[in-house]
Amino acid sequence: xxxxxxxxxxxxxxxxxxxxxxxxxxxxxxxxxxxxxxxxxxxxxxxxxxxxxxxxxxxxxxxxxxxxxxxxxxxxxxxxxxxxxxxxxxxxxxxxxxxxxxxxxxxxxxxxxxxxxxxxxxxxxxxxxxxxxxxxxxxxxxxxxxxxxxxxxxxxxxxxxxxxxxxxxxxxxxxxxxxxxxxxxxxxxxxxxxxxxxxxxxxxxxxxxxxxxxxxxxxxxxxxxxxxxxxxxxxxxxxxxxxxxxxxxxxxxxxxxxxxxxxxxxxxxxxxxxxxxxxxxxxxxxxxxxxxxxxxxxxxxxxxxxxxxxxxxxxxxxxxxxxxxxxxxxxxxxxxxxxxxxxxxxxxxxxxxxxxxxxxxxxxxxxxxxxxxxxxxxxxxxxxxxxxxxxxxxxxxxxxxxxxxxxxxxxxxxxxxxxxxxxxxxxxxxxxxxxxxxxx
Length: 440
Ligand code: AMP
Ligand code: GLY
Hints:
The chain is built from 13 helices and 25 strands. It has 4 domains: 3-93, 3-Layer(aba) Sandwich (Rossmann fold), CATH 3.40.50.20; 127-198, Dna Ligase, domain 1; 208-345, ATP-grasp fold, B domain (D-amino Acid Aminotransferase, Chain A, domain 1, 2-Layer Sandwich), CATH 3.30.470; 347-440, Alpha-Beta Complex (Glycinamide Ribonucleotide Synthetase, Chain A, domain 4). Strands 12, 15, 20, 21, 24 and 25 form a 6-stranded antiparallel β-sheet that branches. Strands 3-2-1-4-5 form a 5-stranded parallel β-sheet. Strands 6-9-7-8 form a 4-stranded antiparallel β-sheet, sandwiched between helices. By secondary structure, it is of the alpha+beta class. The chain is globular, with a radius of gyration of 21 Å. The site of adenosine monophosphate has 14 residues, from strand 7, strand 8 and strand 17.
């Protein structure tokens, strides 16, 4: 079947999704909202408000859209997939309740406990409800009591501990506390509403190597894509602040077949079966953020209910598949494994070009040059993340600006090509890590 697809989102992940959808034999027409200048080269940008599910549904009906693909977590958290499905539109993306695997850390942790899925030990702490009729003094006393209980829990455990905000926090709600003081500070910050008033989860620190695995799910069955590795810290050698991700590569050489088998048996299959058994079948991309210990055993660090960013830019670059057919089949409840030839042809490296200052304050509006020149090399794809058009030029418009992606037969060659393209592209304040794919 030929698909007419509406893609929702505007980042580097959506640019990667858009280019693979565009290159799918089964994709007839592709729209994107809100999109970005890079996506505008492969999809028709439309102006339908992503927060207005009624408006999107109406627009889809009018245009004859056969499939909606939802990129980011916010619309999933708001129930966009449910609203569209209830109007008879096929959607690749989980329901609001299934997306709780990502939107609520405590739901995810309790789910894993119920289904024996390996993860770090944890305890959940709720703050006094800001919206309740309690007065501010009661809230302050309540917050103090919760903080004390949390500190007592921490005292019973080895350091470091990991403190996580229990709601969406754009990747910034996680603190690995090495000391008791740092833990207390993190709890106080979260208690005072740094992100909201959803409470916290405190969990044990997992040691090992991190990897991300995506499963394209239809509620019952799944297809696993190439394992990837994200580099979350801003600085060389995995140092400094956490970011949305400074680069990624796929597949990961050390992630061998025996590790994959354990991930499938101990994580992916029980997660999909557990969600279905609880009445929340997961349709969409199940992102398993994993820690693999020295014996090759996987533990879940986090779930996301969508494709990862920037891993997707690497994973889809090596994927040999009709992505439109794959996602449409999953959305319709029978994921089509025949739409995939290979989960990884070669190795892809994605290097994020960021604005100086990111993840803190940074400047916007600087002219970007060299993208077309870099793309003269057929092995290079430059994904736009934070850009906009201004009078015929492309200018910087975000912390993460571009994802420069190269594919080659080996990791070393992919790295060489990606970094050569990173030098060709320029803008004022360009910053990137030089060790993407070279550190674990
Ligand atoms: P999350 O948003 O839950 O993925 O956490 C962000 C990052 O913090 C992860 O990618 C890990 O590097 C680190 N992290 C989170 N939880 C743990 C844990 N239990 N043990 C070790 N590192 C963790
Ligand atoms: N790369 C991490 C994420 O997408 O959440």
